[in-house]
């Protein structure tokens, strides 16, 4: 019997075959996984060399922004225009109302003035009729003495037209026949006159052509004193050569003239509106 036969062996017991197979399988699988990973690794790490063009986000953006800005500006202009039109309309409306109120006020004032002028003209007409009636009564009661004897201070001024003859009588008769006719600026008859138109027409009946306007008529003859008047003399208001009104002296201290649109053609006393001077054409 061997000397070492009883010495126990220190080697590890042999593993069972099943466990060895299992470990071999796991190890093989692990190594396979590593191999696969190693094989795949270089392929994934390879750099990408292909360039992909992405659509530009700003394509068309500037056009859209410009269109939007233009639309906004147009809206602002439209609003501004509308505001201006509204303001102008309001201003025009206020002006129209103011003008209407002013027109109404002027119309009322004119109406009142015309009524007052009419009342004044009627009062003057009544006074004038009363004066003529009184004059006729006085003349009827007179002794028929000459006018020069009836007034020592102004014999010629008191001359009565009933004693006038010839051209002067024709002029005076025509002037008196127009009393009551209307006054119209530029009027030359037969039913409407201005002052110089009446004087010119009256003198035409005597075959005398006078200038058309009062300025020229006031220098058409010889200047005479207002204290030495004769029927048919031309009376004027204003300066000789710059007169603004003329009339015809008809005797008895009265004149006939186309005065104004309110009174028309009237016969009045010289005291009503004292003339500046007189001129004698006959």
Description of the structure:
- Strands 3-8-4-5-6-7 form a six-stranded antiparallel beta sheet. The chain has a two-stranded parallel ribbon with strand order 1-2.
- The protein has six helices and eight strands.
- Among the domains are: 53 residues; 127 residues, endopeptidase domain like (from Nostoc punctiforme) (endopeptidase fold (from Nostoc punctiforme), Alpha-Beta Complex), CATH 3.90.1720.
- The termini are far apart.
- About 15% of the residues have low confidence.
- A hairpin with a 3-residue loop joins strand 6 and strand 7.
- The chain is of the alpha+beta class.
- Helix content is 49%, strand content 12%.
Key attributes of the depicted protein:
282 residues, alpha+beta, endopeptidase fold (from Nostoc punctiforme), two-stranded parallel ribbon, 6 helices, 49% helix
